[in-house]
Amino acid sequence: MAKFIIAKDHNQVGEIGAQIISDQIKLKPASVLGLATGSTPIPLYQHLVRLYQQGVLDFAAVKSFNLDEYAGLSADHPQSYHAFMDENLFSRINIAKENIHILDGLAQDPEQQCQSFEEEIKKAGGIDLQLLGIGNNDHIGFNEPASVFICDTHVVDLTDSTREANRRFFSSLEEVPTQALTMGIRTIMAARKILLILNGQNKAAAIEKAFLNVIDPQVPVSILQLHPDVTVVGDEAALGGLKKQAPSLFASS
Ligand code: F6R
Predict the structure, then answer these.
(1) Integer CA distances (angstroms), 179 to 13, 114, 141, in order
(2) Which of 16, 40, 110, 137 is the most buried (most CB within 10 A)?
(3) Whose CA is nearest to atom 15 of ligand 1?
(4) In sequence order, which ranges of the chain are alpha helices (DSSP H)?
(5) Ligand 1 in contact with 35 (CB < 6 A)?
(6) How far apart are the C-alpha atoms of 116 and 138, rounded to whole Å?
(7) Pairing state between β 193-198 and 129-132
(8) Which residues are catalytic?
(9) What is the count of structural domains for the chain?
(10) Distances from the Cα of 29 to the Cαs of 57, 83, 216, in angstroms?
(11) Which domain holds residue 187?
(12) pTM score, two decimals?
């Protein structure tokens, strides 16, 4: 059963999340981390950078795999997830460049790119800890609501609601890519641990649907009900409603 932790605000979501990742790296310095982008993990990455600067954390042996990347954006496009990760984390810590894996949005053969990404994850020994955010439409990675759970890393058409949610990073809706490359549901579920972070009232309905209802590919995040080691860290605005409706979910936290 997932463990739920309520933090006092977005910054504390990041602090607690960073502590969980830090514990993972201390336990296994050559950890394989699955990483996420978006607004939610920014404070978490700030706390990881602080721990690194304080000499508490060493990323020299860490390997990373990012959840997703927009199709059609080059690595140096300011809104690419390559650029996001570089700005918020990688340029500020001592992770080795060759240990960073992010899908290439400009791959000539995207299907082949997805396959070799899966192979790289296997070669690394699988993901020890996967960080996730949650979309307003219940996506994880860019696994959008669908009629079936799509298993492996794949190319996906982004829904209008996701493009609308992400337009804040672009100057117009037209500039938001229509496709992305994303880890699949099986890729995510194969991670040994999952850390899902969220904040704000606009994520409350999504997390409630995820854990109060049956597992449904129209609610991709609901698959996490089947994962044996999930920790959810969110603020009161995001998790308060879930706690009210299902206090037993919070009994162990
Ligand atoms: C990001 C990702 C997405 C986001 C989700 C929430 O790599 O895979 O699933 O985690 O869209 O985004 P924010 O944090 O911006 O609300």
Answers:
(1) 29, 14, 13
(2) 40
(3) 38
(4) 10-27, 42-53, 81-88, 110-123, 160-166, 185-189, 204-212, 236-245
(5) no
(6) 27
(7) parallel
(8) 68, 137, 139, 144
(9) 1
(10) 9, 25, 36
(11) 2-250
(12) 0.97
Among 237, 187, 230, 191, which residue's Cα sits nearest to residue 210? 230
Residue with tokens 């992305």: 180
> Which two tokens mark 68?
């997703």
What is the b/e burial string over 160-185, where b = at least 16 CB atoms within 10 angstroms of the residue's CB?
Answer: eebbebbeeeeeeeeebbeebbbbbb
The atom number, within ligand 1, closest to the CA of 35 reads 7
For residue 153, what is the domain's CATH number? Answer: 3.40.50.1360
Which residues on adjacent β-strands are paired with residue 251?
A: none
Percent of the chain with pLDDT over 90: 98
CA angle 40/44/107 to nearest 5° reads 65
Instruction: Write the pLDDT tens digit of every residue in 192-216.
Output: 999 999 999 999 999 999 999 999 9
Whose Cα sits closest to atom 3 in ligand 1? Answer: 141
Q: Could you tell me the two tokens for 239?
A: 């998790």
Tokens of 240: 């308060």
Residue with tokens 């860290």: 233
Backbone phi, psi, residue 126, to 5°: 90, 165
Q: How far is CA 39 from the centre of its chain?
A: 11
